[in-house]
Amino acid sequence: MTDMILFGVFPYVAVALMVGVGIYRYCVDRYSWSSQSSQFLESRVLFWGSVPWHYAILIILLAHFLAFLVPSGWGVVLGNPLRLYILEVTGLALGISTLIAVTLLIFRRSLNARVSAVTSAVDWLVLAALLLQVATGVYIAFTLRWGSVWYLHTASPWLWSLLKLDPQVHYLAALPTVVKLHAFNAFFIVALFPFSRLVHVVSVPLTYLARPYQVVVWYRERRAG
Amino acid sequence: MNIRAQVSSVFHLDKCIGCHTCSIACKNLWTDRKGAEYMWWNNVETKPGTGYPTKWEDQEQYKGGWEMQGDTLQLKVGGRGSTLGKIFHNPNLPTMDDYYEPFTFRYDDLTSAPAGKDQPTARPVSMVTGKPMKIEAGPNWDDDLSGSNIYAANDPGVVKLTEEEQRQLFAIEKMVFFHLPRICNHCLNAGCVASCPSGAIYKRGEDGIVLINQDKCRGWRMCVSACPYKKTYYGWTTGKSEKCILCYPRQEAGEAPACFHSCVGRIRYLGVLLYDADRIESVAKQDDKDLAAAQREIILNPFDPQVIADAKKSGVPEQVIKSAQKSPVYKFVKEWGIALPLHPEFRTLPMLFYVPPLLPVMSMDNQGKQKMADDFFTTLEQARLPMQYLAGLFAGGNEEEVKAVYRKLIAVRIQRRSVTVGDIPAEEATKACDIAQVSSEAVDAIYRMTTLTRIKERIVVPPMLREQAIEAGMDPEQHKQEMGFGSRRPPKRRW
Predict the structure, then answer these.
(1) Which residues contact B263 (CB under 8 A, 6 or more apart)?
(2) Out of B81, B89, B236, whose CB is closest to A50?
């Protein structure tokens, strides 16, 4: 029953919150939509925290998504022991980078008086959830070897069942508690998304690559149209 | 031809007394709130000096503005891809320490301290952390050359001078300074606009005012680096960048911007300029020394029938063209040619121009006594403030550009002295005008505009045509019925 609530119901609640509250906040309070960068207050430590954190977590998330979306293709990639080995080592290295980075960011936020002055309770909650997530992730990668393979037979079908609106929590039932924690916390972070600065994740400004440098806004054009 | 109108300004530096009234007027209106304490959309610097934020002119450090890479114009912070790559940590972002940590004092302690042997004191506390702090910098920390061995000596413009020129600048009892008030330049080729990954910063087409859309800004803070004048500021509480809005709400109500209106020395002139937007890029690509002249070239004569016809074709309203004809900025910049842009070599085409200061330049001669006639141009060559320093500020290093302005300003002095004091023969005045290549009538006009004009002549706010902006979105009659509640939303049921 607990499993059903945590892995069959909560994910839907989390996604509903993310989409519902996210859209509401975007429409009603767009002014609050920001990365809330604190680099202006402290720049040096942020470099060693923020840069490895963002690049490493992006690659790790990409791997999680690919393995979930195309498990068969992922399985083919891992068919060769050498490739499996390289992938696992890379994943572990990136995981450790994120762990060190997020620890550094937590220390920075608590020890630097200026940065802690602009830190809210939700900021701490986000950092704690992220620390828990990367810590359990690295722990799983260390102790429950070849996660990139067993993910294909546990997490991937579970996520697919969620996507098909037919939650099959038995895929996770037999897994160790730490994996369950990792899975639950993932959706907890999803639920936190619309209430925190995490919203900046969906504001990736890729349009910048294509737009002309100068932006001129006319009301005259609006009138013609 | 793509003619646009630009609200532009001229600051007459000879008239600036460095009182900071402009800064305070601006602060009281726009930045008097948490997270904005350190922002001075308008600030007044002492030159030579390192300014605010410290050494903002040093683009090797801050990477503001544009640079030529072969034949292409590129932001100094890097191309589009590299800008996005630096989004997680911007290596060229100034931090709070480059400005100053905002502070207040515990005034309460003065009255609430328990009785004791010592006088109670009001300790300084940080407005960021609330903790006691040692005040080590402020927005005008080097005011009037204070600490000049640290500040003025490290002015990025001063360190470029020869040792002889530097010695001359800092000679005991001959030290010299002037004030440089700065606001956003509302550039034609703005670095902040170009660098914003979100596309939140834009230039208003109708009047050229550069604004940051607060709903679109995501706090990527590239604009802070890319503006070479450091006139966009990161709001450390809101996570949004902010900048001078040239008091557009005041202008739309027909009033002068607050800093202009409050200026004690009446140094500030405002008016509309017509320019050819198709030529922005080609002007920005000129050599450093030609930039000031090229920028004058892009500004069009609002009396020329051809320009008027083209402007109308480009959609510039008749009223705005009329306003451009009354613009004092056009007179200073184009007609008389005595106002220059600040650091044109940043290639953003700033639309705020400065009449360079004459006083410290002239008072070199005869231990303070100004020699007006005869060899006044040799005076200029041996000016107390090195010409190279002024050329570095206002003309991309082109001394001729600055000297041409000074010859005219000196001609004005000589002609006025000849008229009012009478100890200089009229022929001297005519000679000075000839050398300066300025007519006697123009000299009179410069004198008049500099000294006698009232606010309506100094500050010609163009019709901002809000009615047209309203028409673009809704029926003006309906707008009239629904506005005025102090709310941005019409009072009607939405849900």
Answers:
(1) B21, B22
(2) B89
